[in-house]
Amino acid sequence: MNSLATLLRPSTREEFLQNHWTQRAIALSGKGQRSFTDLFSWEELNALLNFHQIKYPDLRLAMDGKVLDESENSKLLQWCRQGATLIITQVHQRVPKIATFAAALQQELGYPTQVNAYCSWSGQQGFKLHYDTHEVFALQVIGEKQWFVYPETFPVPLPSQRFTDADLPQGDPYLSCTLYPGDVLYIPRGHWHYAKTVEAPSIHLTLGVHCKTGIHFLEWLASEFSSQEVWRKSLPLQPETLPGLEDLVQDLAQYLTHQNVAESYHRYLMHSAQSAPQYALPYQAGFNLFPDRIDTHFKTAPYQNIQILSDDPSECQVFINGKAVSLKGISPTLAEQLFSQTEFTGRDVMAWFSEFDWELDLIPLLSRLVLEGIIFVEAEH
């Protein structure tokens, strides 16, 4: 399970993006050929509860459409016996396999992802009818769950635009389904929904995709203009405000006409995309970086967003997961060769960089990349 195509079977990626993404919910049957128990299980849930000190609101309970107070977490077992849904958020930061799964989809979709876990009990409904302000994939891990999805009443809401009871949809749901282990339900942002466990206890994961919007683009544009004095000046006092605004509008129009704004914004998204830090001690503390000398094995972190820029053929700047690293004396071609690999040895690097000296050039380069957490030493070989 490492790609959107696998998640969407039997639908194709193209059919899904054309007919459902941000438009309409769809239930996708695993037909016994897909399982999520490699990502999560009762054992994994118990390990989180037993060995991680997870506090409210990352660990919370919901009953009859309401989230229980923080104090009720101390009576977790009693509430579970009464049918309260147990929620653990941000499990992609706590379970390595889920972290890899979320990172793979984040790279493919191009937007931040997060994964929450929900454990519910026979015949119970945890949350009342509601909508989310991000795209949602529900992955049924264990048990069965009924879902009911209604049309949007306020299209594509932003995170600050929460629902009220006055916004409730009228009529019947346009999608009613029961998810079985291995099934997936996609629910677009703003589409109302609720779920009920059927009989046996249920565990499902929700993958949330937080897409950027035109509002985010405007916020980025405002941050770009903050470096310009003319945009930081106070507007003229009333009633002279209008001429001052007209000057700014003309300046904005000129900027949009003469700058490749879309490319700059895309570059900003690439530079700001960050994954969780990865630690590999003792190497990142500067010890035993080359346990096998030139035959030391290295690896890159999976699903990294890498961009290599250069105005000089003998130097380049590498952006990886929000981190910028300048490599002097390294051409973009050589950098591309290095960062396109998932695993390699020092001897491989010596072959790619044949004009470089191992002691004088390559040991310092590889050491820096290890210390920066961009490549990692593989110890057992």
Supply database-style keywords.
8-stranded antiparallel sheet; single chain; 24% strand; Jelly Rolls; 2 domains; 381 residues; 17 strands; 3-stranded antiparallel sheet; alpha+beta; Outer Surface Protein A, domain 3
Task: Describe the secondary-structure layout.
Layout: H1 4-8, H2 13-19, E1 26-28, H3 42-51, E2 59-63, E3 66-67, H4 76-82, E4 85-88, H5 96-109, E5 113-120, E6 135-142, E7 145-152, E8 175-179, E9 184-187, E10 191-197, E11 202-209, H6 214-225, H7 229-232, H8 241-258, H9 261-272, E12 297-300, E13 306-312, E14 315-320, E15 323-328, H10 332-339, E16 343-345, H11 346-352, H12 358-371, E17 375-378
Characterise this structure.
The chain is α+β, with helices and mostly antiparallel strands. It has 2 domains: 4-209, Cupin (Jelly Rolls, Sandwich); 283-378, Outer Surface Protein A, domain 3 (Alpha-Beta Complex), CATH 3.90.930. 31% of the residues lie in helices and 24% in strands. The chain has 12 helices and 17 strands. The model has no long low-confidence stretch (mean pLDDT 90).
